[in-house]
Amino acid sequence: MSQTTLDLDLRTFTTSGGARIFQLPLLVFPGLWGYAYLVLAEAEGGSFQVLIDAGSGYGDSNRHLEAGLREVSNHLGFPLGLQDLTHVLVTHGHIDHFGGLSYVRPRTKARIGVHELDLRNLTNHAERLAVVSPHLRAFLLESGVSAGRVDQMLDLYRMTKSMYCSVQVDFTYEAIGMRLGPFEILHVPGHCAGHVAFRLHDVLFSGDHVLADTSPHQSPEQLTHSTGLDHYLKSLEALRRWSNGVCLTLGGHKEPILDLNARIEAILQLHADRLDKTLWLMDEPHTIAEVSQALFGEVHGYNVLLALEEAGAHVEYLYQRGLLGIENLEEVERAVQPHPIRYRCLPCQAKSTP
């Protein structure tokens, strides 16, 4: 693997098999930068011009995508745009990675792929929002968020996602045997139900599953099947086993990772510490909202929802393992609507987590 820096903070990498990778920086939401990747590879059966992820479609994201492709064209000495792509591969069904498909789809004949468990996020987006919203409302009320605040948070949740229009998807990864030409594919649920990693020779595209300098967001499986901390931690171990020989990991955000095993260890340790802190808090009854406050302090805007979901994922993990019980069970049983749940460490339980 080798690396070169171009203009506009555009970086290019070359795999051990000679494939060329261009990292395209995109402002996916205000204050949040992400990456799409243009990959040029030769394999038995032909040439592959592949776009991995498509940005959010929000604000300047589409403009940055087009600007990145123009810069790549200048570097190569020939035009290469959306119309020249053979495939668009989506790492996972979060809006900052697939929202740009509404812009890309009418401008390309490329075949779009996604994992089966995230298919409906792309193709039946309105239905997906309708299904998730009541689950999220129940979670927030059970977490101890006031009813008025819940409505505000639901509006915030729907705001950016409502800008996306469903698009046609051409294939799903399991249906093609988790391989496309030179790309190997691994399903790594947790951060998102249909999250995948792509391996091309000695380079790994990790999406949001493993990122440098930050722990990818977790939410409870109560909201969406195949998410939750249990799935995520097991997927980290699966990725570690699968990625032997990888020299470079390129994420959907942050800097490239040169030592994947060390980064996985750091993320595992962070969650172990967070689980221990959550368990110790539960010597006294706490709601998820109170746990969120203790873990993350004062947060604002959309980060309030993210912190609640992260705390909820850790409480759920401990509750699933019999380390926590519901202190106010009678209140919860009597309630007609979702009611704040206060969790407490069960008697005689060890105060550490594996």
Secondary-structure map:
Layout: E1 2-5, E2 11-14, E3 20-29, E4 32-43, E5 46-52, H1 61-76, E6 87-89, H2 95-98, H3 101-104, E7 111-114, H4 119-123, H5 125-143, H6 147-161, E8 171-172, E9 179-180, E10 183-187, E11 196-200, E12 203-207, H7 229-242, E13 248-251, H8 260-281, H9 288-296, H10 302-320, E14 324-326, H11 329-334, E15 343-345
Parallel strand pairs: 5-6, 6-7, 7-8, 12-13
Antiparallel strand pairs: 1-2, 2-3, 3-4, 4-5, 9-10, 10-11, 11-12, 14-15
Shape estimate: globular
Identify the strand order in the major beta sheet. Answer: 1-2-3-4-5-6-7-8
Unreliable residue stretches: none
Q: How many E strands?
A: 15
Total domains, how many? 2
Could you estimate the helical fraction of the residues in percent? 25-40%
CATH superfamily of the largest domain: Ribonuclease Z/Hydroxyacylglutathione hydrolase-like
Overall CATH class of the largest domain: Alpha Beta
Please tally the helical runs, counting DSSP H or I stretches of 4 or more residues. Answer: 11
Mean pLDDT: 94
Describe the structure.
This protein is α/β, with parallel strands linked by helices and 354 residues long. The chain has 2 domains: 2-144 and 156-270, 4-Layer Sandwich (Metallo-beta-lactamase, Chain A); 275-345, no CATH class. The protein is built from 11 helices and 15 strands. It has helices at 61-76, 95-98, 101-104, 119-123, 125-143, 147-161, 229-242, 260-281, 288-296, 302-320, 329-334; strands spanning 2-5, 11-14, 20-29, 32-43, 46-52, 87-89, 111-114, 171-172, 179-180, 183-187, 196-200, 203-207, 248-251, 324-326, 343-345. It has an 8-stranded mixed beta sheet, with helices on one face. Helix 5 (125-143) packs antiparallel against helix 6 (147-161), helix 7 packs antiparallel against helix 8 and helix 8 packs across helix 10. It is globular and about 70 Å long. It starts with a strand and ends in a 9-residue tail after the last strand. The model has no long low-confidence stretch (mean pLDDT 94).
